[in-house]
Amino acid sequence: MFYILEVLAMIQHYFNTHDFSRNNHLLSSIQYKEQLGKYLIEISTGGYIKFDQALTNFSHSHNYYEICIVISGQGTFKHGDDTYNLKEGMLFLANKNIVHEIASFETKDLYIIFFNFNFTQLKDPNDSNEEKIINKFLENHIIILEDVYELFYYFPLLNRSQNNHQEFNYIRNMLLKTLILEYITRLTYPGTITSSGKLINNSITLQAESYIDNNLNQKLSVNEIASYCHVSERNLRRLIKKHYNYTVTQLIRQKKMNKAQCMLNMGFTICKTSEECGYDDLSYFNRVFKKYYGLSPRDFKNRHLQK
């Protein structure tokens, strides 16, 4: 029963950033590996980094995955050709062998915790449900997620390296494995399998479509939508084109025109419809609508009234 009481006691030790700052031994000595199906997973805790003195860790790469969580502050994360803005509560991933850099030049207050992990494929697999999680992650995953505050509460549970009880060390290792699997599950793209077995990644496209739908009364830019989805403009354009066979601009226009048609059919004025579809220039709205439907908004409205 000792290990159960120990873990329950630790759960009551809530996460505290200040305590972490003072503990120089935090997450510095835990290493764990286990065969999961056809994979050998190797995990190690890195520790924490404050970007208050050294403001960057400079461009570098390594042959393992690195997961970081922003405990506080702000900064930037360059990963290959893409750059992401970091803020408190974010989870982000550096892929293996990809050049990346973390920095906090402007605010000088970024504070992160990081973990390392890697997979080796084995010839003699065993039965494991975790193998499916790893397979999906390796097929496709995103780089960054917001609002993962609930994952902070794992950290105090791992911060007892001085404890030599065998039962506790087992629990701690299981917690570390569970945490890493939780990370990669959250970063894995939800997807749709086609009849040919091809995975269509729709996590980003669904986020983008949802953002467009919720902001049709605004002027929308590709940069704005890409920033919301935490991807580069180039990547967003590629994913939207692949998933919808439209450009981002075409998708926005289609949704705005569909909304305009519905509003006119419901009896809204042309001026109000133009405003609710994000067009502050009424003449421009008229031109776009006529080009899309072959009728001006007025003619479209009159035809509907005659039915």
SSE map:
Blueprint: H1 2-11, H2 17-22, E1 31-36, E2 39-51, E3 65-72, E4 75-79, E5 82-86, E6 91-94, E7 100-103, E8 110-121, H3 130-139, E9 144-145, H4 155-158, H5 166-187, E10 191-193, E11 199-201, H6 203-214, H7 222-229, H8 233-244, H9 248-265, H10 270-276, H11 282-293, H12 297-306
Antiparallel strand pairs: 1-2, 2-8, 3-6, 3-8, 4-5, 4-7, 6-9, 10-11
Helix pairs in contact: 3-5, 6-7, 7-8, 9-10
What can be said about this structure in brief?
The protein has helices at 2-11, 17-22, 130-139, 155-158, 166-187, 203-214, 222-229, 233-244, 248-265, 270-276, 282-293, 297-306, and strands at 31-36, 39-51, 65-72, 75-79, 82-86, 91-94, 100-103, 110-121, 144-145, 191-193, 199-201. Helix content is 43%, strand content 21%.
Account of the protein in words:
The protein is an alpha+beta fold and 307 residues long. The protein has two domains: 2-188, Jelly Rolls (Sandwich); 199-306, Homeodomain-like (Arc Repressor Mutant, subunit A), CATH 1.10.10. The protein has helices spanning 2-11, 17-22, 130-139, 155-158, 166-187, 203-214, 222-229, 233-244, 248-265, 270-276, 282-293, 297-306; strands at 31-36, 39-51, 65-72, 75-79, 82-86, 91-94, 100-103, 110-121, 144-145, 191-193, 199-201. The strands form three sheets. Strands 1-2-8-3-6-9 form a six-stranded antiparallel sheet. A three-stranded antiparallel sheet has the order 5-4-7, with no helix packed on it. A hairpin with a 2-residue loop joins strand 4 (75-79) and strand 5. The radius of gyration is 25 Å and the shape is elongated. It starts with a helix and ends with a helix. Mean pLDDT is 81; it is low at 1-14 and 191-201.
